[in-house]
Amino acid sequence: MAHKKRLAAAYKAVDLTKSYDLGAAIALVKSNATAKFDETIEISMNLGIDPRHADQMVRGLVGLPNGTGKTLRVGVFARGAKAEEALAAGADVVGSDDLAEKIQAGDIQFDRCIATPDMMGIVGRLGKVLGPRGLMPNPKVGTVTMDVTQAVKDAKGGAVEFRVEKAGIVHAGVGKASFEEKAIAENVRALIDSVVKAKPAGAKGHYVKRISISSTMGPGVKIALDSVGQASAM
């Protein structure tokens, strides 16, 4: 009952027909984040694309200036010196065939997966397991690389991977409700800029259609595109 009352009050505070400037939207979302845990602040971008076409896929990796507020567990497929390098950089799980066997058995102890190029023969066989979970390493987002030290540090430091869903929407966490408004705004702008820069060649018409921000347990608040820079021109 208390949860329903809290949610009803949160929805009452938001004008669902209105688009707020970024600062006002963040302030509203933070004020509505009244759950007993530190809610994640999430952004949703509705894009004018059809990701069913290969030339309209949008994906990338962005380092948020203020981190995500969450510590990711990182798994790395590597051998020899590169495996040692990954461990030294702070990777939580490192291996090759042995790691593949654990994954096939359903033992997945990481939130992001990195691989050196020579490991992709092994990793490729795990596509049906890692793919649906969004964990498949990809050179386009820097998770297939020989520079495992930098890749692990990026993941641990708050880098966020984004990928458009079937409905043309990008979802991503951009911080915690406990963050200061300025820190959330900087993270939001960094994410939006990266999505804009990732505009595919096949995109036609208006690229960024709508943007909204919310907390884990709160309602979405629409952001006015002209308050977030270059998104309004796309």
Describe this structure in words.
The mean pLDDT is 91. The chain has a five-stranded mixed beta sheet with strand order 1-10-9-2-8, with helices on one face. Strands 5-4-6 form a three-stranded parallel beta sheet, with helices on both faces. A two-stranded antiparallel ribbon has the order 3-7. With 234 residues, the chain is of the alpha/beta class. The protein has eight helices and ten strands.
Can I get a quick summary?
The protein has helices at residues 2-13, 22-32, 80-89, 97-104, 120-124, 127-130, 148-156, 181-197; strands at 19-20, 40-47, 59-63, 74-77, 93-95, 112-115, 159-163, 169-176, 208-215, 221-223. With 234 residues, the chain is an alpha/beta fold. The model has no long low-confidence stretch (mean pLDDT 91).
Q: How big is the Rg?
A: 19 Å
**Structural shape:** globular
SS element count, helices = 8
Number of strands: 10
Order of strands, widest sheet:
1-10-9-2-8
Which descriptors apply to this entry?
21% strand, 32% helix, alpha/beta, five-stranded mixed beta sheet, 234 residues, three-stranded parallel beta sheet
Which SSEs are present, and which pair or pack?
Blueprint: H1 2-13, E1 19-20, H2 22-32, E2 40-47, E3 59-63, E4 74-77, H3 80-89, E5 93-95, H4 97-104, E6 112-115, H5 120-124, H6 127-130, H7 148-156, E7 159-163, E8 169-176, H8 181-197, E9 208-215, E10 221-223
